[in-house]
Prior knowledge:
Number of helices: 11
Shape: globular
Distance between the termini: 65 Å
CATH class of the largest domain: Alpha Beta
Oligomer: single chain
Strand content: 15-25%
Helix content: 25-40%
Largest sheet: 7 strands, mixed
CATH topology of the largest domain: FAD/NAD(P)-binding domain
Amino acid sequence: MSNFDYDLFVIGAGSGGVRASRIAASHGARVAVAEDYRVGGTCVIRGCVPKKLLVYGAHFAEDLKDARHFGWDVPDCKFDWDRLRDNVQAEVTRLEGLYGQTLDNHKVTVLKTRATIAGPQKVRLADGTELTAERILVATGGWPHVPEFPGSEHAITSNEVFHLEKLPKRVVIAGGGYIANEFAGIFNEFGSKVTIVNRGDTILRGYDEQIRDRLLQISMTKGIDFKFNAPFQSISKNDDGSLTVMLEGCEPITADAVLVAAGRVPNTKGIGLEEVGVELDEHGAIKVDETNQSSVPSIYAVGDVTNRIQLTPVAIREGQAFSDSVFGGKPTVVDYQNVPSAVFSHPPIGAVGMTEAQARNKLGSIRVYTSDFRAMKNVLAGRNERALYKMVVNAATDQVVGLHMIGPDAPEILQAAAIAVKAGLTKADFDATVALHPSMAEELVLLK
């Protein structure tokens, strides 16, 4: 028996921490995981899962209108925010229970309390109890970044947005990333007046320029207002409970809620990392090597706290790789090439591989194929919204190095197509595949 209380102590029961815990336990390790909020982490509790449920709810706004063109006598419908909010939270609670059950089934000790690092192989719980572990894994995720300016305390973040007492009639959203654009689409479909405020001049930095320009065009057509190069100056609360938002170079905006979606930062403050010598980068992320090991040999980290790729499936892969390597005798390194991603905007975006600009810079000679079309459903519904599919090909090898899509079900289609990009298939391989007709996905094998 080990002289330690546990073979592995995990701080944070989010996607990466839960996966690492149960896999380590399945390899025979004695594992404890501490979580000071709710088991499941950002994704399950206050991130991608409840957000996607809101996205589904928002789509009904257009679907109900479109249904009339398909022969359904749909009356004017009223949206009930309270009902959707409560149903979403009930589903979150159900999933939290399943996560807890999974850990219990693998005989992982779950400590519902805050834990900090008290030494290279020691943790301290909120009540002062100290426990030892041969290895410590930090999986505390990320936290919404709120810039400091007068009145910033009146803003909410993606942590609080799922619990709003009532639907805001007017909402200002700060940021240009995926969270900002996703909630802009959600609130707009629910009937709120939405203004996106961006201190820069670009939305969805890192995505292909044509795709993000198409989303901007469609969003504006849907009635979403955009303010670019407009840093916040202040937010003040009015006597009627509304907010006045002051922006640089813009007229004041009156809103019922201000959502700050200005990115997420690694959640490393106040947990004792620097005191034991764990190196952090300039953003506060834990520096780790390809095996997820920090500068302190007994301390590891996975997920958003390392700020490598802030995606739930990546954190899960890292947690699995860590436990298989350390406790399963199966050395595993995560491959970060060609990781697919999605933006669940209205319409959604799916992307994998290099953008056109990245490919030109890296490869020089490339070929670009696009398909700009209206989905069949949109045609019959009288909706002018157009989808755009884009394929980037290495001219020297014919290998497909990037796929970028915006349109209905783009993420669902992209997941399968990402396998082809990951496998290094060529444009000729796509061309040789018979189209599945009639479908939107067939455009990928018909690009000329």
